[in-house]
Design brief:
Elements: H1 2-21, H2 38-51, H3 61-78, H4 103-115, H5 133-145, H6 156-170
Length: 177
């Protein structure tokens, strides 16, 4: 059991060093195999030197804590923004249609306006927050393009197609699915 815990600790050490190596050419990438070999020692020495720690090639408590902090900071800095789920989960079979005025309508209008640059058939979309006939027409065009029932209302299926099209064309590459 102790041997297994040691291998897991070494694998974590290697995981942290490998992640940091992607963004720091002074640290060579290494396999994550749970074996403390010369490559692991060399990567650890490079980290210790850069972190201003005593260069021992060994993961003492101070080195491990600094390494974990550097790894955590790197993950946090590179984490993509969190998504917001705008379309409600409840009630079941919910749709947004002509006559509604709410924040979700503004989100739909904004996505359609952006997508009008990709899909010529989607005309100018108002940015009013009110689901009017012009918005419904743009939704119908979008639905036709994507093989959905062209009823001009946004249900979950239309919302998912709209979100997917928007993410494919305009989101940060880290957010694309």
């Amino acid at each position: 059991m102790a041997r297994e815990n040691e291998r897991e600790a070494i694998a974590n050490l290697q995981r942290y060093l490998r992640h940091l190596s992607y963004f720091n050419e002074e640290i060579d990438p290494l396999p994550i195999d749970g074996i403390f070999d010369t490559a692991t020692e060399a990567a650890l020495r490079a980290f210790q030197e850069q972190a201003g720690l005593p260069v021992t090639g060994r993961a003492d408590q101070q080195t491990f804590e600094r390494l974990f902090q550097a790894y955590s900071d790197s993950i946090e800095q590179r984490e993509p923004p969190h998504r917001i789920a705008h379309f409600p989960q409840i009630p079941e079979n919910y749709t947004v249609e002509v006559g509604e005025a709410q924040f979700l309508v503004s989100v739909i209008q904004n996505a359609l306006q952006e997508l009008s640059a990709v899909y010529d058939r989607i005309g100018d979309v108002p940015q009013s927050g009110a689901y009017d006939e012009q918005t419904a027409e743009a939704v119908r065009e979008f639905q036709e393009i994507h093989g959905l029932p062209a009823n001009g209302a946004v249900d979950r299926r239309t919302w998912n197609a709209l979100a997917d099209a928007y993410n494919r064309n305009f989101s940060d590459p880290y957010l694309r699915q």
